Q: What sequence folds into this?
């Protein structure tokens, strides 16, 4: 069964600090991995997408890494801001047009001033 | 924002009554999804559609049915609402299954 596990479940940091969120998956055969950001009361929005051949991808202060061999990904947030407070969801897709992506449960990040 | 809307945005209903939620898109995307989101569970797939009149079950489909008679509309029906179906419901769309999903604003449903 395809699974996506995220850690930690929740995280509290001070504004300006860095943090790293983890995602482990068992989805196979692997197609791509996305990180979504979900602000409170809103639908998730895609931050990054990574395919098998990509190791690192940045989107502003967000940097995602992928190790396809160990089936792990991380999302690193640099110089956190209050607006980074949200849930971050890891989503993994399998090869084959009919496979529905597998969602992780998300990491809830709170940034305190 | 992707052209995706949900209606109603909020609904309060009583146990045993039927409820229909509507998802409407203007992007002509092939795939449409219904998720529910509850504390501690994340997003869980209820049903999805891969074309007009083509639908399939997700991991939490019991008590729900769907219909898609037009590309742009995907309806979620609770035939007889129960308190366990109190949740936030999100609709999403994508061009293909492995592509980015674009989510609607959500519908908050309270079943008393």
A:
């Amino acid at each position: 069964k395809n699974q996506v596990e995220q850690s930690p479940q929740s995280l509290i940091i001070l504004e300006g600090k860095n943090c790293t969120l983890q995602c482990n998956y068992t989805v196979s055969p692997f197609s791509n991995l996305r990180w979504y950001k979900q602000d409170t009361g809103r639908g998730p929005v895609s931050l990054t997408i990574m395919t098998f051949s990509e190791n690192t991808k940045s989107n502003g202060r967000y940097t995602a890494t992928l190790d396809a061999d160990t089936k792990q990904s991380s999302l690193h947030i640099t110089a956190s801001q209050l607006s980074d407070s949200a849930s971050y969801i890891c989503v993994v897709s399998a090869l084959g047009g009919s496979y529905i992506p597998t969602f992780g449960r998300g990491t809830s990040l709170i940034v305190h001033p | 924002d992707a052209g995706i809307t949900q209606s109603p945005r909020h609904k309060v209903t009583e146990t045993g009554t039927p409820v229909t939620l509507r998802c409407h898109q203007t992007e002509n995307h092939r795939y449409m999804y219904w998720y529910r989101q509850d504390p501690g569970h994340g997003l869980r797939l209820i049903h999805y559609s891969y074309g007009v009149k083509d639908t399939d079950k997700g991991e939490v489909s019991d008590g729900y049915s769907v219909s898609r008679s037009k590309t742009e509309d995907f309806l979620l029906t609770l035939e007889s609402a129960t308190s366990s179906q109190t949740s936030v419901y999100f609709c999403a769309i994508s061009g293909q299954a492995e592509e980015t999903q674009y989510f609607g604003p959500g519908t908050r449903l309270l079943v008393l």
